[in-house]
Write a structure and sequence with these properties.
Elements: E1 5-8, E2 13-16, H1 17-25, E3 35-36, E4 45-49, E5 63-67, H2 75-78, E6 85-89, E7 96-100, E8 104-107, H3 127-140, H4 143-148, E9 153-154, H5 157-169, E10 177-180, E11 183-186, E12 191-193, E13 207-218, E14 221-226, E15 230-231, E16 237-238, E17 240-245, H6 246-250, H7 255-266, E18 272-279, E19 282-285, E20 292-295, E21 304-307
Parallel strand pairs: 8-9, 8-10, 12-13, 17-20
Antiparallel strand pairs: 1-2, 1-3, 3-4, 4-5, 6-7, 10-11, 13-14, 13-18, 14-17, 15-16, 18-21, 19-20
Bound molecules: zinc ion (ZN).
């Protein structure tokens, strides 16, 4: 059974695999094996697989794997507290559909400033410390956390993409919602491929737009231009682009990940990337050439995900 949450011995807190991934790339977590099962008094060792992979796709999405035996009292071992299943009868075909109560991920557009602050990190990982930390864990485990700890907030497009891939793989995608500013939308309809649609026909609210794009280096950053454009009122296809400034990269806590990914893209003879960006495309007019173009404004690197290849499952078509 997959684990949604594990206890990090380095952070001394319960975290999900996506947060573990961000903590790894920001340097707060250094050992992919320094996790234990979140169950009561359980010392089963847990590894966060793929935490060290700079790319993500169907095969390398970060997730927890349990090694060793669960404790006798472990809830994970004895029942299923982290995933409450409610069986409801499907209509018509009599098929039973499983609905998880905790299907909503909250997508928070601004990461709290305390996100990367951890309480008195102990970098010494010898055996005695490990025991002490496990005791600490047991004392702090509460029922509430077991129930709610994994209905976590998501702070980046990268994590939304990662969850999308995970939910697709475990076939729960149809029951998954993402909540933004109080409004819930199905995961699948939260993504929109840029494919020469009419700009005016696009939804009012911001979404994650994605597609292949050219990545060009400029003195002040990178210009990302989607291969496909969007149509204006008269049916003319306009280019869609945005800019990732050096300043934005410089102040990003997971800079290492971004620079590693972009570096592997810039060595290509024709640098292209599979890009996701959260926002709403807007029609602009160049002040110098008065040419029209479509732009996303990027204020935070959490709102963009740049990949060397498409992480999306091959078979799937999302709108
Ligand atoms: Zn356990």
């Amino acid at each position: 059974m997959p684990l949604d949450v594990a206890y990090s011995l380095e952070i001394e807190d319960f975290i999900d695999a996506d947060k573990a991934y961000e903590f790894y790339w920001s340097g707060l977590i250094t050992n992919k094996k320094a996790f234990v099962c979140p169950g009561d008094s359980c010392k089963a060792q847990v590894t966060c697989a793929n935490i060290d992979e700079e790319t993500q796709n169907m095969r390398v999405v970060p997730h927890f794997r349990i090694y060793g035996e669960h404790g006798e009292k472990c809830e994970i071992f004895n029942k299923i507290p982290l995933k409450i299943l409610d069986l409801v009868g499907g209509e018509g075909n009599g098929e039973k559909k499983s609905v998880e109560l905790s299907v909503v991920d909250s997508f928070i557009l601004v990461r709290p400033s305390s996100y990367y602050e951890i309480r008195d990190k102990n970098t010494n990982s010898n055996g005695n410390d490990l025991k002490k930390k496990i005791n600490y864990k047991s004392k702090n485990l509460t029922y509430d956390l077991m129930q709610n700890g994994f209905i976590s907030s998501v702070y980046s497009v990268r994590t939304i993409v990662s969850r999308y891939l995970r939910y697709y793989a475990d076939k729960s995608i149809d029951n998954r919602l993402v909540n933004i500013s109080g409004k819930s939308v199905p995961y699948a309809s939260f993504f929109k491929l840029i494919w020469e649609q009419d700009l005016e026909s696009l939804p009012e609210n911001s979404l994650i737009y994605y597609g292949w794009a050219y990545v060009d280096r400029y003195e002040k950053g990178y210009k990302v231009k989607f291969k496909k454009g969007l149509k204006d009122k008269s049916g003319v296809v306009l280019p869609v682009s945005f800019f990732i400034s050096n300043d934005l990269i410089e102040k990003y806590p997971i800079k290492k990940l971004v620079t590693k990914r972009i570096a592997s893209i810039s060595i290509m003879s024709k640098p292209t990337a599979f890009v996701f960006i959260y926002g709403k495309p807007k029609l602009k007019k160049s002040a110098t050439t008065s040419k029209e173009y479509i732009n996303f404004s990027l204020y935070n690197l959490d709102m963009v995900d740049v990949n060397t290849d498409s992480p999306m499952p091959k078979k799937i078509k999302i709108n």
